[in-house]
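Give me the fold.
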Amino acid sequence: MKKYMIILLSIICMGWVVAEKPLPPKKLSKGWRWHTEGKFKYPSTYTRTETFVEDVPATVEVFSKGNIQLCYWSLLGTWSTIGEFPEEGVWLSPTEKVRNVTYRASSKGIASGYTQKGNIFYLKQKITGGEVRHSKVLVLIHPQSEKNKVSKLTNLVKDW
């Protein structure tokens, strides 16, 4: 009887251990990596850099290849959650600011338009926090000439 109780307790304990393990990262198709904290995928061929932008102040991760940039702002302060975001002059990447917004779906957190350098941007903002509101932002920036090459990245940002 003791033998069966020990086996039963062992099985129960093993079940608890299994239940406490975090879920594995999402399985991705070949050529993509999973950004665990941001919960989005990005092309594995893109180079990752991290920069602190003093004017914001915040850190931005930039995943880039050629003239295409996917920028992730993991923590923006309350300035970014008040009013219409983004506005003219707001930083989208360490090198690009908003020139104008041509489309906005505020209820979905989506906006698009042009940067001061003439590139197209498409972004999604997620509000986080409780009493103190912050936001996370995922931005795709690309030249008009690359528009047909970035449809998967545009959908990635839209569905984020």
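Strands lie at 32-35, 40-43, 47-53, 58-65, 68-76, 98-105, 110-115, 120-128, 134-142.
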